[in-house]
Specification:
By secondary structure, the chain is an alpha/beta fold. It contains ten helices and eight strands. It has an eight-stranded mixed beta sheet, with helices on both faces. It is globular. Bound molecules: adenosine-5'-triphosphate and magnesium ion.
Length: 257
């Protein structure tokens, strides 16, 4: 039957439900929240010698699909916004966009509509507000992928993206760019040369050593500035990294290159 859900669709819905319940922003575990704060500090220190007052554009990518890039990006944006930074999230993955669904925002207008000149920046910025009960609201501005274009690589490679980022840098402290995986399509390589730094997500029991090596090689070829790695999904096997009895559960581990 046409309306019968496939096993894959059911699993995707379950994942999303779990993610909303446990893994995003205010619902992160204590250990997860602490790991993101450490990541925030490390990122801030990475730019400590930069005297420009312009906001920083940070890309998040990985070697293969499904390593947790979008989830990392959401949590990073939340953690920076929580510390009173002005934060914008841009969905640079125009092939498999997920942010509108995850944050319950409109699918368009978004980045693609801006890059073809159909909409103004103000039309495309949506606000996501969240926060812990009893605490001040945390606001993150978001530009979702927008109408899915036939030519994402060409759009991302156009000088319009640079002009757009130049304007946005004046209005935000940190801009996080969600990118597709490096070994799947060229988009992340194209956009990495326009960002101030790239974070690579690797996922426990998911990332393949060869694909990661190839990702590093390709990012170096385009002179991307690699800020470091996020190790997503470190489970019980990795408890030895953390103080006994202090962390209940560990989700993230950041290592600076
Ligand atoms: N540490 C984790 N524990 C459990 N589930 C996770 C974890 N990290 C990510 N996931 C789940 O894995 C799925 C993929 O995560 P996400 O969409 O963030 O990855 P992605 O790298 O952005 O994927 P894509 O390459 O398709 O853009 C999501 O359903 C997410 O909830
Ligand atoms: Mg993603």
């Amino acid at each position: 039957m046409a309306d019968k859900k496939t096993k894959k669709a059911i699993k995707a819905e379950e994942n999303l439900k779990n993610e909303r319940r446990f893994m995003i922003g205010p619902r992160l575990s204590f250990a997860g929240a602490e790991a993101y704060k450490l990541l925030r500090t490390n990122i801030m220190f990475s730019f400590s010698e930069d005297s420009s007052s312009d906001g920083k554009v940070i890309g998040v990518t990985s070697s293969v699909p499904g390593e947790g890039k979008s989830m990392t990006l959401l949590n990073l944006a939340y953690t920076f916004a929580e510390s009173h930074k002005k934060v914008l999230l841009i969905e640079g993955d125009m092939r498999l966009p997920t942010l509108a669904g995850r944050l319950k925002l409109k699918n368009a207008p978004g980045l693609s509509n801006l890059l073809v000149g159909l909409n103004s920046i103000n039309d495309a910025i949506q606000r996501f507000t969240t926060g812990k009960e009893g605490a001040p609201a945390v606001n993150v501005d978001v530009i979702v992928a927008g109408t899915i274009p036939p030519n994402p690589s060409e759009l991302l490679g156009s000088s319009r993206l640079e002009s757009l980022l130049a304007i946005l840098r004046k209005n935000y402290d940190y801009i996080f760019l969600d990118q597709p995986p490096v070994t799947a399509v060229t988009d992340a390589l194209i956009t990495s040369s326009k960002t101030d730094g790239t974070i690579i997500v690797v996922r426990n029991n998911h990332t393949n050593r060869g694909a990661l090596a190839e990702t590093m090689r390709q990012l170096k070829l385009v002179d991307a500035r690699i800020l470091g790695f996020v190790y997503n999904g470190a489970g019980d096997d990795n408890r030895k990294y953390y103080k006994k009895g202090y962390y209940k559960k560990k989700d993230y581990y950041y290592k600076k290159t």
